[in-house]
């Protein structure tokens, strides 16, 4: 199922339910049928999501050092899309909503 996040400060952001649940979990929110991230919660939410992106990038960099594409005896594999790419539209929305001092809603 698709979840649509809305704010007057940015275009709507749609994502699959499992990604929405994951990103909301990072910022300490629960994915219910309806919800809100208030403008007062935005600074903490942005900080938590940015920290998670930094941690993910660090872990991916460590993994990339073990990437052996084309080497004999190693199966090629795709490097999955990282949190930075998955979270960017939502993080951008959080930042724009913070600048505009507005809330983010879903399920409305």
UniProtKB/TrEMBL annotation:
It comes from the Bacteria. InterPro entries: DUF1840. Residues 57-76 are annotated as: Disordered. This is DUF1840 domain-containing protein.
